[in-house]
Amino acid sequence: MTAPAAPSEPLVRIRGLTTVLNGKTIFDAMDLDIPRGRVTAIMGPSGTGKTTLLKHITGQMRGDAGQVLVDGQNVPELSRERLFALREKIGYLFQNSALLTDFDVFENIAFPLRQHTRLPEVLIRNIVLTKLQAVGLRGAASLMPAELSGGMARRVALARAIVFDPMLILYDEPFVGLDPIALSQVLKLIRTLNETLGITSVLVAHELDAIKQVADLVYLIANGKVVAQGDPKTIANDGSPWTRQFFGGDIDGPVPFQYPAGDYAQALGLGGDRA
Amino acid sequence: MSAQPHRNVITNALAQIGEAGLFLLTLLAAVPRSLRYVRETVRQLWFVGAMSLTIITVCGLFVGMVLGLQLYYVLSIFGGTAASGTVVAIAIYRELGPVVTALLFAGRAGTSITAEIGLMRATDQLAAMEMMAVDPIAYVAVPRYLAGLIAMPLLCAVFCALGIFGGHLVGVTWLGIDNGTFWSNMTATVDVHKDVINGILIKSLVFGAVVSLIAVYQGYTTPPTSEGVAYATTRTVVASSIAILALDFVLTAFLM
Amino acid sequence: MSQRNSYAVGTGLFIVLGFAALAYLATQTTSVANTHQGASYTVEAHFANIGQLKERAPVKIAGVRVGQVSSIMLDPKQEAADVKLSIDQAYSHIPDDSIATIFTSGLLGDQYVGIQYGSSKKDLADGGTLARTKPAQQLEEMLGKFFGAGGVADNLGGSYTVKARFSNVGALSVGAPVKMAGVAIGSVAAVHADPVKLDAEVELSIDKKYDQIPDDSAAAVFTSGLIGTQYVAIQPGGSPEFLKNGDEMVLTQSAMQLEDLIGKFLVNGSPAEKKDAPAGKQ
């Protein structure tokens, strides 16, 4: 930890982030702050780069310009060792859980501990069982990932993400494909982790109802910029055309129904010349 | 796949070789970092090497038996069945041992390496390791590569031993070639350097290095879809087989 | 953890098995198995013909391996092959009048030197000579021929050329060895047909080391072994004059086909039966 930022500073501070992938502008001089100790939700139409944004925060991807400051360190400029040291303090919940299929549940959670520490086996066992208890799956310790349901796998992945008691957890689409019970369980876990451990949480999701229950702050991103931000309960009423379409679920609006294409009449061979 | 710019077969193959070569450099550069994952290398040696023993043993035995039988028929025309020990040993050490072992290895271990790494890519396990501050090249790719490299000569030696045994079983035990003649002709002709070192060790080390590289490379660069994994697995077998047979010719011309 | 240990044990077993197989192949199935350890002593033997005897070929007494052939040289003055035998010190009580013979193991097998004990009370010493030898028994010799096969001589010391005419060279090709007493002394430099005399003119390039070949020596085209390649064998004559560069060898014997030889052998052996057969029918 070099030069830790003051507690009042946002934990993640993105300034002027610009990223072009395959000729398509994903982020266009984006500014975004993620406050400490809060649950921040990032929403937006599909394909606007919400997951890509998480990857920029963890340094899995680098932008073409701009700063991504995490706890005072500019991620794109970190050396491999410094980046790995930073990642040990960040938990990441993958959309498909990404459990290591070679190992059982216990070893999956113990994996980061075994890789980065030389703790005695008893201590590893205690830590793993504590985390499993926290997600309610202590009894599933000896199951293989293939034997888990989607909700269980996500909770195991969550237990793995918090095994080092990180300062920041990134959730990539944590609610997708969960039944209402599992969804409530995951919601409660996110809230509990945030409240009891003070872990800063960032979630990328589409489910507005769920977000209203957990998030303190919502960013709506589209066209490579933040188009709206605010409290989840009131953001839908801020009057911008983006929020009206997104939260109203309108078919057409700033996000067009038609994928950009050439002139329709011309494509059908009905050129204007003949009219 | 379709997103790739159109390239013809030759430039495509050259690009693949070039990319695989660069990937090899990445692997070699990561070897020091993977030294802390020795356990993982040992575990992969178990999957790649020890788990291939069954197929290697059975195939080695049958190749030796077929060789013993064919040689008996051909050599008995000249009344030279005494030479069958020599011919079995030389054929197996110089060509059949390394080549058939490498082909079997590509089919058994190579495909499983490709499929495993490909699925790890498709299910974000490699990205998850990155996020847990574990370098997937050092933890996943290098141990499998090293395991393949170490396992090939050992598997080849087992194959050859079983091949000799199979040839002996058919020639001596069943068809009645004199036991002493079989061995003495073999020991009189087979040379440690030319046959055992060049054949079993050098050839199979080269084949092991190439097949493992192809398998790990194909797995690591798999498009993260289920059809991508299937495609990569097929490519491992095709590319390995071509590489083995082409390199065999080059090595034979070079070593003999 | 127990799971990890089982991998380690299994992998360890695999590695040990692999190296054991390699060590077995390298030591038990190769010529390493034939190289004996320990002290040895060297004796010489002169053979009129060594046939296909090679260096490192085994030396056996009563069928038991006691040593190996360490070198083979041609002694041009004696028209004989000088073979050095390296014998294990453990077998140091060989009578000095023992007989060394070149045997063949099987029809296509390699040749080895067998020693049969004599009756002398004196043991053969290091550097001693086995005076009594029997040359290799060649297939051609059994069928009425004289000389055997070996490797091709190197012409590093320069060579001289002599010519020989054959009515039939068989499958003799350029590069084939020229041998005397079974040892290669040169090679065939050219084979061409003479359109006038309707025979084959063969140029033999012979190593300068062997410049004392009598000029009435005979040249013959032989086959090495049953299915081997053909070569030119030189059978020394008795003239005091030696062959010089450009000379032509007058006495030649053309290639004889294996079929002819076997045919002759069978025909010669069968008359008695032929006589009997009709008699029985009558």
TrEMBL record, chain A:
Residues 12-248 form the ABC transporter domain. InterPro entries: AAA+_ATPase, ABC_transporter-like_ATP-bd, ABC_transporter-like_CS, P-loop_NTPase. GO terms for molecular function: ATP binding; ATP hydrolysis activity. Pfam families: ABC_tran. Keywords: ATP-binding, Nucleotide-binding, Transport. The keyword Zinc does not apply. This is Phospholipid/cholesterol/gamma-HCH transport system ATP-binding protein. It comes from Frateuria terrea. The lineage of its organism: Bacteria, Pseudomonadati, Pseudomonadota, Gammaproteobacteria, Lysobacterales.
UniProtKB/TrEMBL annotation, chain B:
Pfam families: MlaE. It is found in: Cell inner membrane. It is a multi-pass membrane protein. Keywords: Cell inner membrane, Cell membrane, Membrane, Transmembrane, Transmembrane helix, Transport. GO terms for molecular function: phospholipid transporter activity. Coiled coil: none annotated. NCBIfam families: MlaE family lipid ABC transporter permease subunit, perm_MlaE_1. This is Intermembrane phospholipid transport system permease protein MlaE. The lineage of its organism: Bacteria, Pseudomonadati, Pseudomonadota, Gammaproteobacteria, Lysobacterales.
From TrEMBL, chain C:
Keywords: Membrane, Transmembrane, Transmembrane helix. Residues 40-118, 159-237 form the Mce/MlaD domain. It comes from the Bacteria. The keyword Membrane applies. InterPro entries: ABC_MlaD, Mce/MlaD, MlaD_Phospholipid_Transporter. The keyword Membrane applies. The chain crosses the membrane at residues 7-26. One of its GO terms (molecular function) is phospholipid binding. Pfam families: MlaD. This is Phospholipid/cholesterol/gamma-HCH transport system substrate-binding protein. The lineage of its organism: Bacteria, Pseudomonadati, Pseudomonadota, Gammaproteobacteria, Lysobacterales.
